């Protein structure tokens, strides 16, 4: 359900450090552009600009949001399928994507620091970060709604098991003998 390309791009975004940049993708996968002496020349020749970087990031974020929508609208995300493998797989995919998406947000924040002197780029990155924050909040809320159903059932099973364990415990009461009141009396 989640494309490898999307997961790779989110992982790369999460690895962006302050003062780092990304470089244009040719195969759909971005890469980190490390600071070097010839970096400006390489970026100029390759037509690799801040605008292109923002475009790439926006495309990755849009793809992630569409993937979230696709999974959340899957027919298996329904009460009647709660015990199915498909339901479990959908929930797992949402969790994986949500985690990678959240980590990628940190990388975008670092890129914003890199371009802090360019208000146009910072503004565009702010909008992307806003989309990411809103999506993380919305998907987290929906995931919490989906998962408690499972957790409630497992808690009920745990309670049943605990009650069963408690009823099978034998409580032994100590056997006190009546004191002999004639002891010591002749």
UniProtKB/TrEMBL annotation:
Protein name in UniProt: Uncharacterized protein
